[in-house]
Every structure is written in C-alpha cells, then in structure tokens.
Design goal:
Residues 15-175, 277-437 form the Zinc finger ZPR1-type domain. By secondary structure, this protein is α+β, with helices and mostly antiparallel strands. It folds into 4 domains: 6-58, ZPR1, zinc finger domain (N-terminal domain of TfIIb); 66-174, Jelly Rolls (Sandwich); 218-323, N-terminal domain of TfIIb (Single Sheet); 328-462, ZPR1, A/B domain (Jelly Rolls), CATH 2.60.120. It has 12 helices and 25 strands. Strands 1, 2, 3, 4 and 5 form a 5-stranded antiparallel sheet that branches. It has a 5-stranded antiparallel sheet with strand order 9-8-11-6-13, with no helix packed on it. Strands 21-20-23-18-25 form a 5-stranded antiparallel sheet. Strand 15 and strand 16 form a beta hairpin.
C-alpha cells in the first residue's frame, strides 16, 4: 500500500454480522494515498462466529472516464498471480477463457492480488455447494467442474486473461515494469454509457434512455442551422462531414480556448459551428463547437470543443481531415534548448512515443490524443505513468521499484531543465501526428526530421484497414447525389 499522506483517527461502530446476525465491530479508517485516491478502509470482525472481512471504498471523486485493465497471465508464472489489484464497488472482473464474470455486487471494493480475487470467488461459489447437491445435483456437479478450472487458474496451472473494467475509473492492476511498458498488461480508457452514468449516481437525461416521445423525431431537437450535423443515421449529411460528427472520446481535458488559440496561429479557422451535445462526464445537455483549420506542413484538421455548465467538464478533441494516408510517418526532433520545449505537438491516439535517453517507449493509445507542447507532453507522460503505477511508489513497494522510479524522475527533471540534449520520436502509422518547426520553413529546421514508411500487414490489421470495404457507402452516396 502506498504511503499515507493524511488520515483521520480510527473509528469503531457496531454492525450486524451477515453470517450469524449477532453484533460485530466494524473499524473505519479514512485516509488519502498520494498519487492514488481518497479511500475508506473497513474491517469487520464478529466475536460470535469469527467472521472477518475487509473492504475498500473510494471517498474521492469519480474519474472522467472508465478504465479497462487487461492482464495476460501465463501458465506457471507466480509473479503475475501475485500482482496487486484494486477493485472498486463498480468494477466487473472477467475471465473470457472460463466465460466467468464477477459482477460489481459480488465483490465489493477490495485490495487484493490476482490470485486472491480468484480464490475468493471460488470460496464464495463453493460456500453453498452442499445445499445444491441436495436440491439441484446436476447444477452442483457442473459447478464442481467449473471450480476445478477456476482454482487451476488461481494456482497458475492454466493460462488465462484477467480483465477488470470499471466505469468509475478507480480500479487498477499493478505494473511491476513501471515506468516502462508491461508486455502482459494493457490499459484502455472509455466513455461511460448513459446506463453506467445512472448506476454511478449521475443525473441522466431521460431522453437518452430511449424515451419514445423525444427520440422518435430527433430532427425536432436541432435548429435548421445545425441540423446537418446531427449524427449519422438520423439525417443525411454531406459526404465530407461524416468524420467530423459528434464524438464522445475525451482525448484532452483542458481549456478549449487554449487549444483553439494554439491552432489559430497557423491559419484562421473557417466558420465555427455549434450544435447540441451531451456531457461525457454527467450526460447533461451541453454545446459542442467545431471548426476546420489547415496547419501548414501538416494537413487539415477538425477541432471540436465542449463545455458543460452543469458539472464544469471540458473536452477538446482533434480529428484529422481528409482520407487515410497511404503511408505512416515517423517524426523525430532533437531538443537542444528551452526554445525547443515550446514546440507545438499534435499526438494522435495511434501514435507511439519514444525517448531514447529515458529508455522509454509508450505504445499507441497510452496517452490518447493530445494537443500540447514538447514540455507538456513530458509532464503528461510523467503524470500518467504515476497514475497507472501507484503500487511502485508506496511503502509496500520493493526497494528496487522505488529506486527505479527515483531514477526515472531524476532523468525526467534533467530533460525538462535541459541539462542535456535529448530526442523525441513520434511514430504514427496513420500519419496524424505533428511537431511544429521553429523556423519559418520546415526545410530549414535541421533538428526536425520526418520519414514516411510503408505500413506492415499487422499495422493495417490493428487499424482495421485490411478488411475495410467502403464500396457500399460510396454507392449510396453516389445514388443520393452527395
């Protein structure tokens, strides 16, 4: 567990035991863990039947997006099974190989390991097996076979995939390789659905849940001026605007005005369009503004920004314009002075980031899409890595892990203080990333290099391009005369 920064005195209250119904004692400890969350540690003990359990609840705010951690557990690897897992009340655990799912209500908020989560699930399933053998022997027999497989996974006798998906974004799986990439662990962030918003206690617009009166005629919700920007499927739209419609993936949380001002210095935007939208955090009604602008030496891009007056959430998104490039692009810049730290950077969610001096490589999708500077990119890398790897920072972390983090932070500070030159590399198979030159013409910037390359079959497969067939859509557009 991470070092405790501040805590309140331990509190004790009486509560009923769920097993015997007698009074037991519950101890509560309110604490805040640096680089993690505000949590409530709860421990229950019954003196009558010796029942004991503990629970972790999150006292802080919900995250703006949900998270999904996918861990591949090889056969016979005890270290992977001992990785620490934080599961919040709203998280769901899945093991696809067993077609097994632990719903949020089955296991409340816990701090455990991969092995501990599976053994607890097996214990809870097997608790009523004796009663099932008397009433439903066939079901009990099937569960016995399943428990053998589940315990086999928990003991490392079988390989499996451990998935924990949390709409609140408060669940984590330990990454012992931090701050580097973990070949066995992948993390994905997603926007919550209206149903997930409601389950977490947010106020959800009833019309989003399928209200017939409001959803039967969606065109009445939009003015004549913005009607052509209604999402596809509700109204015809011009051929060139399909990729610029409302999207709900928040790839940059910041001031949308700052994003706009950073792009305006390249070229003046076209007319700013405004259309109705819903907040990605609380699902309340808000407005989204959109315009297209051209960045010299790069391409046309579409900027979308939303602000919510209800919860204050802000979301800015950058989408590439035009067709999918035939080739990928690898951009590298040699950072020699503080002036280079202020270079503008557009990093798409398909771009990887490499800094050889840090021996750091971030796979595509790790940071999402960003509109920032070289300095801002470094800071966000540091913050995101800390947020995803809190287990390497606390008092329960191994000395080698702590030492590794201290070395990484020292190297990061040296790069930000420009104590030595270093190199930033963006490798984007869709060529949607960009680093701005510091000279009037990009050819005069000797520190900036850009190379195009042919995508491999696997890269096209990962991007969904190998099986892409747009002939039906093209024929439909031609038929409608768009």
């Amino acid at each position: 567990m991470a070092d405790v920064e501040e805590e309140l005195p331990l509190q004790e209250i009486e509560s009923l035991c769920m097993r015997c119904g007698e009074n037991g004692t519950t101890r509560l400890l309110l604490t805040r863990i640096p680089h993690f969350r505000e949590i409530v540690l709860m421990a229950f003990e019954c003196p009558h039947c010796n029942e004991r359990n503990n629970e972790v609840q999150f006292a802080g705010q919900l995250q703006s997006q949900g998270s999904c951690h996918t861990l591949t557990v090889p056969k016979g690897d005890a270290k992977v099974l001992s990785r620490q897992v934080v599961k919040s009340d709203s998280a769901t655990i899945k093991i696809p190989e067993l077609e097994f799912e632990v719903p949020p209500e089955a296991q409340r908020g816990t701090l455990s390991t991969v092995e501990g989560v599976l053994l607890r699930a097996a214990e809870e399933i097997g608790a009523l097996q004796e009663e099932r053998r008397k009433t439903e022997p066939s079901q009990a027999e099937a569960l016995d076979r399943f428990l053998v497989k589940l315990r086999s996974c928990a003991m490392g006798e079988s390989s499996f995939t451990f998935i924990i998906s949390d709409p609140a974004g408060n669940s984590f799986v330990e990454n012992p390789h931090a701050p580097g990439l973990d070949p066995l662990l992948s993390v994905r962030f997603y926007d919550r659905s209206p149903a997930e918003q409601a389950a977490l206690g947010f106020l959800v617009d009833p019309s989003l849940g399928g209200d017939k009166e409001n959803s039967s005629r969606p065109e009445e919700k939009h003015s004549e001026e913005t009607r052509k920007y209604v999402p596809a499927g509700t109204q015809k739209v011009p051929h060139g605007t399909i990729g610029a419609q409302l999207a709900y993936k928040a790839i940059l949380q910041g001031n949308s005005e700052d994003v706009a001002s950073s792009l305006l210095k390249y070229s003046a935007p076209e007319e700013v369009m405004t259309f109705p939208s819903t907040c990605g955090a609380c699902a309340a009604r808000c407005e989204t503004r959109m315009y297209a602008t051209n960045i010299p030496y790069f391409k046309e891009v579409i900027v979308m920004a939303s602000t919510c007056d209800t919860c204050g959430y802000r979301n800015s998104e950058l989408k590439p314009g035009g067709s999918i490039p035939i080739k990928g692009r690898k951009i590298s810049v040699r950072v020699l002075s503080r002036k280079d730290l202020s270079r503008d950077v557009i990093k798409s969610d398909t771009s990887s980031v490499t800094i050889p001096e840090l021996e750091l490589e971030l796979a595509s999708g790790t940071l999402g899409g960003l509109v920032t500077t070289v300095e801002g990119l470094l800071q966000q890398i540091s913050e995101r890595l800390k947020g995803m790897n809190q287990f390497c920072l606390g008092d329960s972390a191994m000395a080698t892990d702590k030492h590794k983090w201290r070395e990484f932070e020292e190297k990061m500070k040296k790069l930000l203080n420009m104590e030595a030159p270093w190199t930033l590399i963006l490798d984007d198979p869709l060529a949607n990333s960009f680093i701005a030159p510091i000279t009037d013409t990009i050819q005069d910037d000797v520190q900036l290099h850009s190379d195009e390359y042919e995508r491999t079959w696997q890269e096209n497969e990962d991007l969904g391009l190998n099986d892409m067939n747009t002939s039906s859509a093209d024929a439909a557009y031609e038929k409608e005369g768009l």
